[in-house]
Amino acid sequence: MSTQTEIGQFPVATPATSRFTRAVLGGFARQFENSPVSFGVTLPDGSVQPFGPGPARFSIVLKNSNALKAVASMDEGRFGDAYVNGDIDLEGDMLSPFELRGSMNDVHPITTVWRFLQPLLFGQVHTNKQAITAHYDIDPEFFLSFLDPATPCYTQGVYLDPSETLEAATLRKFDYAFERCGLKPGDELLEIGPGWGAWFEYASRRGVKCTGITISEVSKQYLDSRARTLGYDWDIQICDLLEYAPGRKFDCIAIMGVIEHLPDYLAVLTKFEKLIKPGGKIFLDGSACIRKFELSSFMVKYIYGGNHSFLVLHDFLDKLARTKLEVTEIFNDRVSYFLTFQQWAKNFDANREFVVQKFGDFNYRRFRLYLWGAAYEFLSRSLDCYRMIIQAPGG
Question: Which of 366, 317, 318, 373 is nearest to 341 (CA)?
Fold first, then answer.
């Protein structure tokens, strides 16, 4: 007698096979026995085990024994490994799987210890270079496959309405930064980590002189080429902020989504004091968390190595109070960053065929999990985002 029934293409577990399936899934099945989130797990034999009270919002497809072991371990890091290696697929609503994260473990002491040994052994500048190279030194077409094509800015826009385009939200942020920093034609702007030049293009069209420092060779090459194409005289230098000493000062400093790579806030703010003119202003924004160096093992292993840290606002403000700089405005942009990451993730999925063909399945998978996971972290308030205006005295 058959112990399975067919629904559509896949056999769905009956009570007899359900007991076997749950035994195979081990602690995973026990943990999510009464899951409030409805989902399905497809086993390597094609049978589907449902969890939750209603229709599945997403499905976890386990392709082989490695996938079974990863899921049964209830270890978030091992699940991530299995996904990027192609042993597991995720289908359906891509925000929903991350609701299960809180029930899983993520203890990887070797990964954690190595994060903090790197700057001690090799120095912070070397650690920064390694981390930035690993994340950013990919052909620009990879990032342009999910950033807004007209305004390729790798930080959040500022949304007034969820239905707005990412381009409109990004331009609103640029408008805000330009106006609040009091920029005008002839002013000198320093951007730390200018990325793919969206902010430079905006400022240059308004007569601002642009200087950028980066530790990504690929970014510099792209920006130099872009400046030639547009006819702008951008000064792009390969240099770590902590070592930058140009012998002159700037009317404005912009650091958009880069403070996460610079966890020594006092060193950063002291450097700002040396680089900003009297009365000059600094635009800063970044994703934020309440604990320093809070990062999943997946993020450390596949996205941001080294001692990367989300912005910790109380720590940052404590260090800023030790300088002569002052914050004049600060806003929480968490919802805007959720909407931005969600749009990036949708863009990336829409360009899946191109990304896989040119950059491989591994790079598609690791960034797909990162983009959707980050969107959920902002949606669930696990992460915040702040933008602020900081002013130097005098002027």
Answer: 373
